[in-house]
Please model this.
Amino acid sequence: MTKTSTTPLILSGITVAENVRKNIKLEVDEIRSKEQRLPGLAVVLVGENPASLIYVKNKEKACINIGIHSEVYQLPTNTSESELIKLIQTLNINEKIDGILIQLPLPIHIKVENIIKEIDPNKDVDGLHPTNLGKLLSGQDCLKPCTPLGVIEILKYYSINLNSMSSVIVGRSTLVGKPLGMMLLNENATVTITHSKTENIEEITSCADLLISAIGKPNLIKRTWVKKGAIVIDVGINRITENDKTKLCGDIDFEDVKSICHAITPVPGGVGPMTIAMLMSNTLKAYKKQR
Ligand code: NAD
Model:
Protein backbone atom coordinates (compact mmCIF):
# COMPACT_ATOMS: atom_id res chain seq x y z
CA MET A 1 0.00 0.00 0.00
CA THR A 2 1.36 3.48 -0.85
CA LYS A 3 1.48 5.95 1.97
CA THR A 4 1.48 9.74 1.68
CA SER A 5 1.94 12.27 4.48
CA THR A 6 -1.83 12.61 4.95
CA THR A 7 -2.81 8.99 4.33
CA PRO A 8 -1.61 6.60 6.99
CA LEU A 9 -1.02 2.94 6.37
CA ILE A 10 -4.25 1.21 7.42
CA LEU A 11 -3.48 -1.89 9.44
CA SER A 12 -6.38 -4.14 8.48
CA GLY A 13 -7.41 -6.71 11.07
CA ILE A 14 -9.81 -8.13 8.49
CA THR A 15 -6.89 -9.08 6.20
CA VAL A 16 -4.72 -10.43 9.03
CA ALA A 17 -7.59 -12.42 10.60
CA GLU A 18 -8.41 -13.94 7.21
CA ASN A 19 -4.80 -15.02 6.82
CA VAL A 20 -4.75 -16.57 10.32
CA ARG A 21 -8.01 -18.44 9.67
CA LYS A 22 -6.80 -19.67 6.27
CA ASN A 23 -3.68 -21.20 7.84
CA ILE A 24 -5.65 -22.82 10.67
CA LYS A 25 -8.14 -24.27 8.18
CA LEU A 26 -5.28 -25.85 6.19
CA GLU A 27 -4.10 -27.61 9.36
CA VAL A 28 -7.63 -28.70 10.34
CA ASP A 29 -8.24 -30.02 6.79
CA GLU A 30 -5.07 -32.08 7.11
CA ILE A 31 -6.18 -33.48 10.49
CA ARG A 32 -9.53 -34.43 8.90
CA SER A 33 -7.83 -36.07 5.91
CA LYS A 34 -5.94 -38.32 8.34
CA GLU A 35 -9.29 -39.20 9.98
CA GLN A 36 -8.01 -38.00 13.33
CA ARG A 37 -10.20 -36.42 16.01
CA LEU A 38 -10.88 -32.74 15.19
CA PRO A 39 -10.01 -29.89 17.59
CA GLY A 40 -12.97 -28.95 19.80
CA LEU A 41 -14.05 -25.72 21.52
CA ALA A 42 -16.71 -25.34 24.23
CA VAL A 43 -18.14 -21.88 24.80
CA VAL A 44 -20.13 -21.29 27.98
CA LEU A 45 -22.54 -18.38 28.24
CA VAL A 46 -24.38 -17.52 31.45
CA GLY A 47 -27.38 -15.23 31.01
CA GLU A 48 -28.63 -13.31 28.01
CA ASN A 49 -26.39 -10.28 27.62
CA PRO A 50 -27.22 -9.22 24.01
CA ALA A 51 -23.59 -8.43 23.06
CA SER A 52 -22.42 -11.76 24.54
CA LEU A 53 -25.08 -13.65 22.57
CA ILE A 54 -23.68 -12.14 19.34
CA TYR A 55 -20.06 -12.88 20.32
CA VAL A 56 -20.93 -16.51 21.12
CA LYS A 57 -22.78 -16.93 17.81
CA ASN A 58 -19.76 -15.48 15.95
CA LYS A 59 -17.40 -17.88 17.75
CA GLU A 60 -19.62 -20.83 16.82
CA LYS A 61 -19.74 -19.63 13.20
CA ALA A 62 -15.94 -19.29 13.07
CA CYS A 63 -15.53 -22.87 14.38
CA ILE A 64 -17.95 -24.23 11.77
CA ASN A 65 -16.22 -22.37 8.90
CA ILE A 66 -12.80 -23.70 9.91
CA GLY A 67 -13.99 -27.21 10.78
CA ILE A 68 -13.42 -27.05 14.53
CA HIS A 69 -15.89 -29.09 16.63
CA SER A 70 -18.02 -26.59 18.55
CA GLU A 71 -20.23 -26.96 21.64
CA VAL A 72 -22.18 -24.03 23.10
CA TYR A 73 -23.61 -24.19 26.63
CA GLN A 74 -26.16 -21.50 27.41
CA LEU A 75 -27.05 -21.38 31.10
CA PRO A 76 -29.71 -19.26 32.83
CA THR A 77 -28.72 -16.01 34.58
CA ASN A 78 -29.41 -17.49 38.04
CA THR A 79 -26.86 -20.31 37.55
CA SER A 80 -24.80 -20.66 40.75
CA GLU A 81 -20.99 -20.65 40.96
CA SER A 82 -21.00 -24.31 41.95
CA GLU A 83 -23.22 -25.32 39.00
CA LEU A 84 -20.90 -23.49 36.61
CA ILE A 85 -17.83 -25.08 38.21
CA LYS A 86 -19.43 -28.52 37.84
CA LEU A 87 -19.88 -27.91 34.09
CA ILE A 88 -16.25 -26.78 33.78
CA GLN A 89 -15.06 -29.92 35.57
CA THR A 90 -17.03 -32.06 33.09
CA LEU A 91 -15.53 -30.15 30.15
CA ASN A 92 -12.03 -30.49 31.65
CA ILE A 93 -12.26 -34.28 31.22
CA ASN A 94 -14.27 -34.27 27.97
CA GLU A 95 -11.92 -35.75 25.36
CA LYS A 96 -13.67 -34.02 22.45
CA ILE A 97 -12.96 -30.61 23.97
CA ASP A 98 -9.53 -28.94 23.74
CA GLY A 99 -10.57 -25.40 24.61
CA ILE A 100 -13.00 -23.97 27.16
CA LEU A 101 -14.10 -20.35 26.93
CA ILE A 102 -16.30 -18.71 29.55
CA GLN A 103 -17.96 -15.74 27.87
CA LEU A 104 -17.43 -12.59 29.96
CA PRO A 105 -18.91 -10.66 31.65
CA LEU A 106 -20.55 -13.10 34.06
CA PRO A 107 -23.61 -12.13 36.14
CA ILE A 108 -22.54 -10.17 39.22
CA HIS A 109 -23.26 -12.99 41.71
CA ILE A 110 -20.49 -15.07 40.09
CA LYS A 111 -16.86 -14.18 40.83
CA VAL A 112 -14.85 -14.43 37.61
CA GLU A 113 -11.62 -15.47 39.42
CA ASN A 114 -13.40 -18.41 41.12
CA ILE A 115 -14.50 -19.67 37.72
CA ILE A 116 -11.37 -19.10 35.60
CA LYS A 117 -9.14 -20.95 38.07
CA GLU A 118 -11.30 -24.10 37.64
CA ILE A 119 -10.47 -24.39 33.91
CA ASP A 120 -7.71 -26.87 33.07
CA PRO A 121 -4.83 -24.48 32.13
CA ASN A 122 -4.17 -26.66 29.04
CA LYS A 123 -7.74 -25.92 27.86
CA ASP A 124 -7.72 -22.24 28.87
CA VAL A 125 -7.99 -20.78 25.34
CA ASP A 126 -8.71 -17.30 26.71
CA GLY A 127 -5.30 -17.39 28.43
CA LEU A 128 -6.69 -15.92 31.66
CA HIS A 129 -5.92 -18.78 34.09
CA PRO A 130 -3.33 -17.69 36.70
CA THR A 131 -0.99 -20.46 35.48
CA ASN A 132 -1.03 -19.10 31.93
CA LEU A 133 -0.74 -15.47 33.04
CA GLY A 134 2.22 -16.49 35.26
CA LYS A 135 3.89 -18.28 32.36
CA LEU A 136 3.36 -15.23 30.16
CA LEU A 137 5.00 -13.09 32.85
CA SER A 138 8.02 -15.39 32.98
CA GLY A 139 8.28 -15.62 29.18
CA GLN A 140 7.31 -19.34 28.95
CA ASP A 141 5.26 -20.88 26.16
CA CYS A 142 1.56 -20.79 27.12
CA LEU A 143 -1.97 -20.00 25.95
CA LYS A 144 -2.16 -16.20 25.77
CA PRO A 145 -5.17 -13.84 25.95
CA CYS A 146 -6.69 -13.56 22.46
CA THR A 147 -7.05 -9.78 22.00
CA PRO A 148 -3.46 -8.81 22.91
CA LEU A 149 -2.26 -11.82 20.91
CA GLY A 150 -4.22 -10.39 17.97
CA VAL A 151 -2.46 -7.03 18.36
CA ILE A 152 0.95 -8.73 18.21
CA GLU A 153 -0.18 -10.73 15.15
CA ILE A 154 -1.18 -7.51 13.32
CA LEU A 155 2.19 -5.90 14.12
CA LYS A 156 4.06 -8.99 12.89
CA TYR A 157 1.96 -9.30 9.72
CA TYR A 158 2.90 -5.73 8.78
CA SER A 159 6.57 -6.45 9.62
CA ILE A 160 6.72 -3.82 12.35
CA ASN A 161 9.99 -4.36 14.19
CA LEU A 162 9.26 -4.23 17.92
CA ASN A 163 12.87 -4.57 19.00
CA SER A 164 13.57 -1.69 21.42
CA MET A 165 10.49 0.19 20.17
CA SER A 166 9.23 2.79 22.62
CA SER A 167 5.66 1.64 23.28
CA VAL A 168 2.91 3.13 25.42
CA ILE A 169 -0.27 1.22 26.31
CA VAL A 170 -3.26 3.14 27.63
CA GLY A 171 -5.33 0.82 29.86
CA ARG A 172 -4.19 -1.80 32.39
CA SER A 173 -6.92 -4.46 32.37
CA THR A 174 -6.08 -8.14 32.91
CA LEU A 175 -7.84 -8.88 29.62
CA VAL A 176 -5.85 -6.49 27.41
CA GLY A 177 -3.44 -3.87 28.82
CA LYS A 178 -1.36 -5.95 31.26
CA PRO A 179 -0.88 -9.10 29.12
CA LEU A 180 -0.17 -6.93 26.07
CA GLY A 181 2.57 -5.18 28.07
CA MET A 182 4.14 -8.58 28.83
CA MET A 183 3.89 -9.71 25.20
CA LEU A 184 5.55 -6.53 23.95
CA LEU A 185 8.30 -6.90 26.56
CA ASN A 186 8.83 -10.49 25.40
CA GLU A 187 9.29 -9.04 21.88
CA ASN A 188 11.99 -6.70 23.30
CA ALA A 189 9.91 -3.51 23.09
CA THR A 190 10.34 -0.85 25.78
CA VAL A 191 6.95 -0.62 27.46
CA THR A 192 5.07 1.95 29.54
CA ILE A 193 1.55 1.13 30.76
CA THR A 194 -0.66 4.11 31.58
CA HIS A 195 -4.18 4.17 33.06
CA SER A 196 -6.93 6.34 34.52
CA LYS A 197 -4.75 7.45 37.45
CA THR A 198 -1.71 8.38 35.33
CA GLU A 199 -0.88 12.08 35.51
CA ASN A 200 0.18 14.07 32.42
CA ILE A 201 -0.81 11.14 30.25
CA GLU A 202 -0.60 13.13 27.00
CA GLU A 203 3.06 13.91 27.67
CA ILE A 204 3.78 10.18 27.97
CA THR A 205 1.72 8.99 24.99
CA SER A 206 3.08 11.71 22.71
CA CYS A 207 6.60 10.25 23.08
CA ALA A 208 5.55 6.76 21.92
CA ASP A 209 6.60 5.28 18.59
CA LEU A 210 3.92 2.65 19.20
CA LEU A 211 0.73 3.81 20.93
CA ILE A 212 -1.93 1.27 21.87
CA SER A 213 -5.22 2.18 23.48
CA ALA A 214 -7.57 -0.18 25.35
CA ILE A 215 -9.77 1.98 27.56
CA GLY A 216 -13.31 1.99 26.21
CA LYS A 217 -13.66 5.79 25.90
CA PRO A 218 -15.00 6.88 22.48
CA ASN A 219 -12.61 9.10 20.48
CA LEU A 220 -10.77 10.25 23.62
CA ILE A 221 -7.31 10.18 22.08
CA LYS A 222 -6.64 13.19 19.84
CA ARG A 223 -3.62 14.15 17.72
CA THR A 224 -2.05 16.01 20.68
CA TRP A 225 -1.64 12.59 22.37
CA VAL A 226 0.21 11.13 19.37
CA LYS A 227 3.83 11.45 18.21
CA LYS A 228 4.25 12.38 14.54
CA GLY A 229 4.92 9.21 12.56
CA ALA A 230 3.75 6.86 15.34
CA ILE A 231 2.08 3.49 14.84
CA VAL A 232 -1.34 3.61 16.49
CA ILE A 233 -3.37 0.57 17.54
CA ASP A 234 -6.94 1.03 18.75
CA VAL A 235 -8.33 -1.88 20.78
CA GLY A 236 -11.35 0.09 21.99
CA ILE A 237 -14.80 -0.81 20.71
CA ASN A 238 -17.42 1.77 21.66
CA ARG A 239 -21.01 2.24 20.54
CA ILE A 240 -22.01 5.86 19.92
CA THR A 241 -25.14 7.47 18.52
CA GLU A 242 -24.75 10.01 15.72
CA ASN A 243 -27.73 11.48 13.83
CA ASP A 244 -30.00 8.88 15.48
CA LYS A 245 -27.79 6.07 14.20
CA THR A 246 -25.68 3.78 16.37
CA LYS A 247 -22.17 3.19 15.13
CA LEU A 248 -18.91 1.73 16.38
CA CYS A 249 -15.84 3.80 17.13
CA GLY A 250 -12.54 3.30 18.89
CA ASP A 251 -10.73 5.15 21.69
CA ILE A 252 -8.67 6.99 19.08
CA ASP A 253 -10.22 9.89 17.16
CA PHE A 254 -9.32 8.36 13.78
CA GLU A 255 -10.13 11.43 11.68
CA ASP A 256 -8.06 13.71 13.90
CA VAL A 257 -5.08 11.37 14.27
CA LYS A 258 -4.83 9.87 10.78
CA SER A 259 -2.87 12.75 9.19
CA ILE A 260 0.00 12.65 11.69
CA CYS A 261 0.54 8.94 12.31
CA HIS A 262 2.45 6.49 10.13
CA ALA A 263 -0.02 3.62 10.53
CA ILE A 264 -3.31 3.02 12.32
CA THR A 265 -5.93 0.33 12.92
CA PRO A 266 -9.51 1.37 12.06
CA VAL A 267 -12.60 0.62 14.15
CA PRO A 268 -14.38 -1.44 12.99
CA GLY A 269 -12.03 -3.67 10.99
CA GLY A 270 -8.91 -3.37 13.14
CA VAL A 271 -8.23 -5.36 16.29
CA GLY A 272 -11.87 -6.55 16.58
CA PRO A 273 -11.72 -9.35 13.97
CA MET A 274 -8.44 -10.62 15.45
CA THR A 275 -9.90 -11.78 18.77
CA ILE A 276 -11.92 -14.67 17.34
CA ALA A 277 -9.15 -15.58 14.87
CA MET A 278 -6.71 -15.91 17.79
CA LEU A 279 -9.28 -17.94 19.73
CA MET A 280 -9.29 -20.40 16.83
CA SER A 281 -5.49 -20.37 16.85
CA ASN A 282 -5.39 -21.04 20.62
CA THR A 283 -7.88 -23.92 20.21
CA LEU A 284 -5.62 -25.55 17.61
CA LYS A 285 -2.59 -24.96 19.85
CA ALA A 286 -4.39 -26.55 22.84
CA TYR A 287 -5.42 -29.51 20.62
CA LYS A 288 -1.84 -30.12 19.48
CA LYS A 289 -0.59 -29.93 23.07
CA GLN A 290 -3.20 -32.40 24.28
CA ARG A 291 -2.49 -34.88 21.53
P1 NAD B 1 -11.58 -2.28 31.27
O1 NAD B 1 -12.73 -1.40 31.60
O2 NAD B 1 -11.39 -3.57 32.00
O3 NAD B 1 -10.23 -1.44 31.44
C1 NAD B 1 -10.14 -0.13 30.97
C2 NAD B 1 -8.78 0.43 31.34
O4 NAD B 1 -8.72 1.74 30.82
C3 NAD B 1 -8.53 0.54 32.83
O5 NAD B 1 -7.24 0.04 33.11
C4 NAD B 1 -8.58 2.06 33.12
O6 NAD B 1 -7.63 2.45 34.09
C5 NAD B 1 -8.21 2.64 31.79
N1 NAD B 1 -8.84 3.94 31.55
C6 NAD B 1 -10.15 4.26 31.61
N2 NAD B 1 -10.34 5.56 31.34
C7 NAD B 1 -9.12 6.08 31.09
C8 NAD B 1 -8.66 7.38 30.74
N3 NAD B 1 -9.49 8.40 30.60
N4 NAD B 1 -7.33 7.57 30.58
C9 NAD B 1 -6.48 6.52 30.72
N5 NAD B 1 -6.85 5.27 31.04
C10 NAD B 1 -8.16 5.06 31.23
O7 NAD B 1 -11.67 -2.53 29.71
P2 NAD B 1 -11.06 -3.67 28.75
O8 NAD B 1 -11.78 -4.94 28.95
O9 NAD B 1 -9.58 -3.67 28.82
O10 NAD B 1 -11.51 -3.08 27.33
C11 NAD B 1 -11.06 -1.82 26.89
C12 NAD B 1 -11.66 -1.51 25.54
O11 NAD B 1 -11.25 -2.52 24.62
C13 NAD B 1 -13.19 -1.54 25.49
O12 NAD B 1 -13.64 -0.59 24.55
C14 NAD B 1 -13.52 -2.92 24.98
O13 NAD B 1 -14.76 -2.98 24.30
C15 NAD B 1 -12.37 -3.14 24.05
N6 NAD B 1 -12.07 -4.56 23.83
C16 NAD B 1 -12.01 -4.96 22.55
C17 NAD B 1 -11.72 -6.27 22.27
C18 NAD B 1 -11.62 -6.69 20.84
O14 NAD B 1 -11.97 -7.79 20.50
N7 NAD B 1 -11.11 -5.83 19.98
C19 NAD B 1 -11.54 -7.19 23.30
C20 NAD B 1 -11.56 -6.74 24.61
C21 NAD B 1 -11.83 -5.40 24.86
About this structure: The radius of gyration is 19 Å. The chain has two domains: 36-122, 146-272. Residues 147, 170-173, 175-177, 195-196, 201, 214-217, 220, 235-238, 271-272, 275 surround nicotinamide-adenine-dinucleotide (CB under 6 Å). The CA atoms of residues 25 and 66 lie 5 Å apart.
